[in-house]
Specification:
Layout: H1 12-16, E1 20-30, E2 38-43, E3 48-53, E4 69-73, E5 79-81, E6 84-86, E7 89-90, E8 92-93, E9 102-103
Antiparallel strand pairs: 1-2, 1-4, 2-3, 4-7, 5-6, 8-9
Length: 117
């Protein structure tokens, strides 16, 4: 893989606008109308959210991520895809570089809802 060029510089204020939090994936379900999307149910401590992620073709067994903590962007508008509503975005590593994506995870367990940054 050849690293992509750096994106345009942003300010620290722009970065502060992102609400990236740790959540535990409690279930992974099929999205019937999609060849790519899976519906993740994620525990953020004070709430559970449905997050749609394009991981169906990336993983032989999508259930392997149940119980894992990962990073999610939460302050995005809800988005309807394939008849389901997504309430955030999985923050994974590798997809944009066309390699098999993996979860961005904390090095040790932390409380659900803990903020990144």
């Amino acid at each position: 893989m050849t690293p992509a060029p750096l994106k345009e510089m942003i300010s620290i204020e722009d970065l502060d606008k992102l609400d990236i939090r740790v959540g535990t994936i409690t279930s992974v379900d099929e999205v019937a109308k999609s060849d790519k999307l899976m519906k993740l149910t994620v525990d953020f401590g004070d709430q559970a959210r449905s997050i749609l992620a394009g991981i169906k073709q990336e993983r032989e067994n999508p259930d392997e991520i149940v119980g894992k903590q990962a990073l999610f962007v939460l302050n995005l508008p809800e988005r309807k895809m394939a008849g389901e509503v997504s309430q955030g975005m999985l923050f994974d590593i590798g997809y944009e570089d066309k390699i098999i994506a993996c979860l961005a995870t904390p090095e040790k367990p932390v409380p659900n809802g803990c903020r990144a940054g």
